[in-house]
Amino acid sequence: MKHFLNINEISIRDLKGILEQAKKMKGARIGLAKGTYDEGKPLSQHIVALVFEKPSTRTRTSFDVGVRQLGGQPMLLSGAEMHLGQGETISDTAQVLSRYVDLIMLRTYESKTLYEMAKYSTVPVINGLTNDSHPCQIMADIMTFEEKRGTIEGKKVVWFGDGNNVFNSFFQAAGKFNFSLIFSGPKELDPPSNLVKKANSLGFDFKIDRDPISAIKGADLIATDTWVSMHDSPEVKQVRHNQLKAFQVNEELMSNAKKDALFMHCLPAHRNEEATSAVMDGQNSVIFDEAENRLHVQKAIMRWCLSK
Ligand code: CP
Ligand code: NVA
Questions:
Q1: Is 107 one of the annotated active-site residues of the chain?
Q2: What is the pTM of this model?
């Protein structure tokens, strides 16, 4: 069974194959209305459950539209309206859903829930974000980078802010696609120490640089994310703002970057907090290309999951 749970668990050959497929499918849709089926309707007669335990704009709409374009049938389910984990075990839920649908996409809190769903499901499971990772996002980000600048291998990626779920998936991708990664944020929000130790064994270049100006020098890609994630308690807000304001991506910081460095943010953003509007809407920003590429790359991920 081909689950898409985390980037570090998938071979680089398959990851590159997914990106190639996504590029091909995107190219074939130029000029078509959004509801036009892709040639051959690759998901014809397939039902895909899209289960959300957290809010979502992009993941929800891009998976729904993607399933439709592939000729399949999306089924949107809100965790709050299911027995999921409260009143019914994840393992029972997984076995029941597998009797009705051909593929499950899950956005949840704990990774444990995702892995349990995958363990007991008899159909493939896709990670639509957990507290610890967001692999579909990073696949879209790599697709976006490579469309604009060619291979990401050997490039320098700098992450500003919280060492959160989106960062973790960048980290896993660095180990697979072999790009160098710099984390620039406060010590309190460092990525988990077990991850950092792993970087050496994975053989890619990973550094922590708490000086944003030196971190950004020579970067090919600059990325950040919200200072407070969906799984964080709202009380941390003020503390986070104090911890992170020095790592805001603004025009002054960007003036130290290479002229053609790309700026990414997975969105949703809190404008003028983690990044200023001038940067988000500036010439280096590719934030809406990233959002669009969620659609294309996830369609390729679904096809990969269902392929033999
Ligand atoms: N980037 C992302 O996953 O956005 P949503 O939370 O809107 O799905
Ligand atoms: N780090 C953010 C990403 C949202 C797509 C969160 O988990 O809320």
A1: yes
A2: 0.97
Backbone φ/ψ region at 107: left (φ over 0), alpha (ψ -120 to 50), beta: beta
Which ligand has an atom closest to residue 132 CA?
2
Closest CA to ligand 2's atom 1: 229
Alpha helices in the chain (DSSP H): 12-28, 58-69, 90-100, 111-120, 135-149, 165-177, 193-202, 212-216, 237-244, 251-254, 277-280, 287-306
Same domain, 144 and 226: yes
Ligand lying closest to the C-alpha of residue 267: 1
124 pLDDT band, cuts 50/70/90, is: very high
Q: Which of 21, 69, 137, 172 is catalytic?
A: 137
The answer to the question of residue 25 being in a domain is no
For residue 192, what are the domain limits?
Answer: 136-290
What is the CA(257)–ligand 1 centre distance, in A?
Answer: 27
133 within ligand 2 shell (Cβ under 6 A) = no
pLDDT score at 193: 82
**Same domain membership, residue 150 and residue 234:** yes
Q: What is the number of residues in the chain?
A: 308
For residue 36, the CA-to-ligand 1 centroid distance in Å is: 24
What does the radius of gyration of the chain's CA atoms come to, in whole angstroms?
19
Q: Could you tell me the pLDDT band of residue 196, with boundaries at 50, 70 and 90?
A: confident
